[in-house]
Amino acid sequence: MGKTAIILGATGLTGSQLLQQLIKDPRYATIKLFSRSNVTSVTSPKVEQYIGDLLNLEQFRSDFTGDEVYCCIGTTKSKTPNKDLYKKIDFGIPVSAAKLAKENGIGSYAVVSAMGANANSAIFYNKVKGEMEAAVLAQNLDHTFILRPSLIGGDRKEARALEKFGLSLFKLISPLLIGPLKKYRIVEAEAIANAMIYMSNSSMAKNVIIRSDEINAIHKHN
Known about the structure:
By secondary structure, the chain is an alpha/beta fold. The chain has one domain: NAD(P)-binding Rossmann-like Domain (Rossmann fold). Helices cover 37% and strands 19% of the residues. It has a 7-stranded parallel β-sheet, sandwiched between helices. Helix 4 links the parallel strand 7 and strand 8. This is Putative NAD(P)-binding protein. Pfam families: NAD_binding_10. It comes from Winogradskyella arenosi.
């Protein structure tokens, strides 16, 4: 009998890549999506969709069951300028998911954070990510995988022309970033999704933080 995976953020850049990879993966029989709206492009019989307010994730308690949780939730300053709402999304949802995983006996939790995550940072974004990581780890799950990508590459349909130009330029110089600078290379959403699945199916230690360059290395050799 195949495994059941839970995805939060399946409509986003990384989450959509993760969903497609899990659909193709024969180890998984069921993929549960928890989101605010239907993912209309998905027709796989593996997929079950649960629609509601993720800021009140507890409403899904009885359905939030499975073997692994993949949290790809995240917003940006431009999309969510209100800092209180920003923290409810980037801190509140991943932590609520970790608490439900603990409550329902789910052994594996993988979450996308950010390279600069630091609970003591003076930068609001980095501070929120660092506080999220600490709160997730505090749930003491069997296995917690925290991925800290740098700039995430991929097809952002909503991206403005200037943003696309910036990503393209950074992608060109990424190969020049060597040694200690490798961690600043662009990480494709496909690579993040691949690393999340690989880690969740590995026999790694209880809590693992995966740096940006390590994400690329896992993807390259997997």
